[in-house]
Amino acid sequence: MDLKLYKKALFLSYFTVGYNILEGIVSILIGSLADSIALVGFGLDSFVESSSGFIMIWRFKKHGKISEEEEKRVERKAVRFVAYTFFMLGGYVFYESIKKLYFRELPERSLFGIIIATLSIIVMLLLFYAKYKTARLINSKSLEADSKQTLACVFLSVALLLGLGLNYLYGLWQADPIVGIIIVIFLIKEGFETLNGVGS
Q: What domains can be seen in the chain, in order of their start residue?
């Protein structure tokens, strides 16, 4: 049962990387064609998010091949690395949000963008739940932290949907960057909480 759960954790990590890379490519292509800064930014963001998945692949591929003590060291290192991805993502989202507010960069009207954001919310919510549940069962703080990174993806997708939707319906272009700044607070908080939990 334990081995099955570790295999599931590895599969979820591969899926995370694959989905984020595909989402990133599609978002950048559609964003470039529609001249949508919000969509291009979302695509670049997906590549940053996939880094957490790569860390999890590295961590779970070692399971069963190293001693229990070495595995604990790898787990602590993975937790630390995932914490750093929160700060990377937070810095990127903060920069993009401030830039959009300062230069008044309006999210373009894009039906494809709305579809991508909606699909991402559904997929990432299911992925968050599966990762969080698996992390609890195998007592993996690194996978639990990674699940929070996936939850951040949900929030960012909501921000994109708000930005595109409210701009389309009411011309409220500020919604996207403002929600982005709120998400930065969540990311930094999670980053510090994850780092603080490394030694425990």
A: 2-196 (1.20.1510.10)
